[in-house]
Amino acid sequence: MFSLKGKIAFVTGASYGIGFAIACALSDAGAKIVFNDINQELVDKGLSAYKEKGIEAFGYVCDVTDEQKVKETVQNIENDIGVIDILVNNAGIIKRIPMCEMSAEEWRQVIDVDLTGPFICSKTVIPSMIKKGGGKIINICSMMSELGRETVSAYAAAKGGLKMLTRNIASEYGEFNIQCNGIGPGYIATPQTAPLREKQADGSRHPFDSFIISKTPAARWGIAEDLAGPAVFLASSASDFVNGHVLYVDGGILAYIGKQPK
Ligand code: NAP
Ligand code: GCO
């Protein structure tokens, strides 16, 4: 029930990071991998990385916020490879700026990539999924789909909205055998969180690094590969009756008040 043999998976923003790890896991389960990134250099970097893993991936240059470009890319994928069975809305950005110092333009950029992008990609692939008899959509949410923190107002608003978009797609298209669920990663060691883990001048841990470890029962940052199994589950027939759910893969952060300071 966990096999993805014969399935085509489209993972957005998957040249590296979480998207890359999820794509590799879907490939290991039998899926054919298609991915996009915002420029040819990144797509080429991704193609090389997949090749090193023995995966013959297909890469397309596409900005997920560009509706026309997404339409063209999905059409090209269907012509070149076939109808998309699994869409992973992974592409995302974050801007860490105190809300009162954030411009509306900076706010819109985050909302556009992290929320409007998944909307555009989902609405573009759903019609062919319906014609094919069903499909899987996995939205990469966040701890910030549930919690706020200083300086990430746009990101939290986008990821909170993405949780509700997940539920709405499940509600509106469940009858067509489309399952739309979310994965809510905890704090994962990728380029996106590198600034939060930078060593201090004296070689000590970044305060935020120590903070996250104290808030995580697993007492460690996640790695992108921690998301592999949950992604295969939600992409496979093992989750055919799971819909509108956000599966948190956070080492227990959401369950834990945090370790008492010594
Ligand atoms: P990342 O290392 O920054 O990778 C994000 C990828 O998305 C990059 O390849 C990026 O390309 C691409 N991208 C950005 N804007 C795009 C656009 N408009 N169209 C297409 N691709 C675009 O991030 P990550 O840590 O792997 O995170 C991946 C997803 O997981 C994001 O949605 C993030 O919000 C979410 N997430 C991350 C964590 C974490 O702790 N790392 C935790 C929870 C959720 P560029 O290199 O050009 O930016
Ligand atoms: C931050 C981090 C987080 C993680 C992730 C947590 O600045 O707080 O970047 O937002 O990226 O979303 O689940």
Structure write-up:
- The structure is a single chain.
- The chain has 262 residues and is an alpha/beta fold.
- It is built from seven helices and seven strands; from the N terminus they run E-H-E-H-E-H-E-H-E-H-E-H-H-E.
- It is globular.
- The mean pLDDT is 97.
- NADP nicotinamide-adenine-dinucleotide phosphate binds next to helix 1, strand 2 and helix 4.
Primary descriptors:
single chain; 262 residues; alpha/beta; Rossmann fold; seven-stranded parallel β-sheet; globular; binds NADP nicotinamide-adenine-dinucleotide phosphate; binds D-gluconic acid
Q: How are the strands ordered across the major sheet?
A: 3-2-1-4-5-6-7
Number of helices: 7
Provide the residue-averaged pLDDT: 97
CATH architecture identity: 3-Layer(aba) Sandwich
Any low-confidence stretches, pLDDT <50, length ≥5?
none
Q: Percent of residues in helical segments?
A: 40-55%
Q: Report the span from N to C terminus.
A: 46 Å
Give the C-level CATH assignment: Alpha Beta
Number of domains: 1
CATH topology: Rossmann fold
Strand percentage lies at 5-15%
Order of helices and strands: EHEHEHEHEHEHHE
Name of the CATH homologous superfamily: NAD(P)-binding Rossmann-like Domain
Bound molecules: NADP nicotinamide-adenine-dinucleotide phosphate, D-gluconic acid
Structural class based on helices, strands and sheet pairing: alpha/beta
Can you tell me the overall shape?
globular
Indicate the radius of gyration in whole angstroms. 18 Å
Largest β sheet strand count, sense and barrel closure: 7 strands, parallel
* Number of extended strands: 7
